Amino acid sequence: MGNTYAVCGARGRVGGVVARQLLAAGHTVRVVTRDPNGLGDLVALGAQVRAGSLRDREHLTELMRGVDAVFVLTPVDVSAPDVNAVQRAVVDATAAAIRDSAVPRVVLLSSWGAELTEPVGGIIACHWFEQVLDEIDGLHRVHLRPVWFMENFLWNIALIKSVGINGSTVGADKPIPAIATPDIAAVAVDYLRSLTFEGRTVHYLNGARDYTMTEVTRILGESIGRPDLRYFRLTDDVLRKGMVNSGGLTPDAARLVLQISGAMDTGMVHAEPRSPHNTTPTTLEQFAETTFAPMYRAAPDASWRDKVGGALLRSYLTASQRRPA
Length: 325
Ligand SMILES: NC(=O)c1ccc[n+]([C@@H]2O[C@H](COP(=O)([O-])OP(=O)(O)OC[C@H]3O[C@@H](n4cnc5c(N)ncnc54)[C@H](OP(=O)(O)O)[C@@H]3O)[C@@H](O)[C@H]2O)c1
What we know:
Helix 2 crosses helix 3, helix 7 crosses helix 10 (284-298) and helix 8 runs antiparallel to helix 9 (251-266). The protein has 11 helices and 12 strands. It is α/β, with parallel strands linked by helices. 44% of the residues lie in helices and 16% in strands. Strands 3-2-1-4-5-6-10 form a 7-stranded parallel β-sheet, sandwiched between helices. Strands 7-9-11 form a 3-stranded mixed β-sheet. It has a domain at 4-149 and 180-205: NAD(P)-binding Rossmann-like Domain (Rossmann fold, 3-Layer(aba) Sandwich), CATH 3.40.50.720. Residues 9, 11-15, 33-35, 53-55, 73-77, 86, 90, 109, 111, 122, 126, 146, 148-149, 152 line the site of NADP nicotinamide-adenine-dinucleotide phosphate.
């Protein structure tokens, strides 16, 4: 007989794959969402949908009552005026529901850097989440600590289309580990299906290898037929304006992204040393082929106005790079 699970964030990237794989393995899966119409094939696959929010303690308690294990996370809502406040509300409601429903096992989508006590972007909420779960008596919990999501590079599609470059605030030669989100879901599903984890487990997920931004740019560029794509290290100010004006992020969300990029660049946010246990299969080359390139091709071209602004920015960046320091 199959097990019963509650999956939070099933409309999201990791939770969606977790829910689908558990259903495919014949288990009962309850999901929570504010938008049941946005669940795609999950309903047809048999997911039991409980419409509601991750910030609603009573709703989450009902969702989790009687299940064998839950998958939880704290979203990063880039449209929120105060991103950490939304995260805190989700952490508190979810942890209270875990306690109230007496669910025995939890797999948390945490993050690299979750050991840090000072606020770094949305990562501080993963720190809070691990802490509150660690305080629940008798709870068996896995804290998954994945590194930088390869899917974050999809944000750069608009930059590539309008400015004709790749860029971020991270130094061009700084090696950064990056992971494809289906690899996180696969590990989460292994834990959930086994139901054998005891006490506290911390599992880093370091991706297939580390990549410098120069390499990232070459790999992504080749996948879209632009092998000469160049990487520029942007200032915080340039990236902030881009994220707020064209990316639709709130100023607070942009501030948090810049905090994380800065902390990656200095090494303040870092993974544990690489090992077979924390290395995951999907390479950036595979991600570029299967995900980045198709999404690049499907994305609309930049408007005439954005292209003019982009050309000006590209000239400015090229000139600043030539200028002696
Ligand atoms: N990006 C990275 O590089 C990185 C690295 C390490 C760890 N992480 C962690 O990964 C997690 C995100 O995972 P993901 O990308 O799979 O998630 P996701 O796709 O962003 O979405 C997760 C879910 O959050 C819910 N949600 C969004 N805003 C909400 C709000 N204001 N109130 C209540 N619910 C809300 C949505 O539920 P509805 O269906 O109700 O809309 C959605 O299903 C975060 O905890 C982040 O810290 C990210």
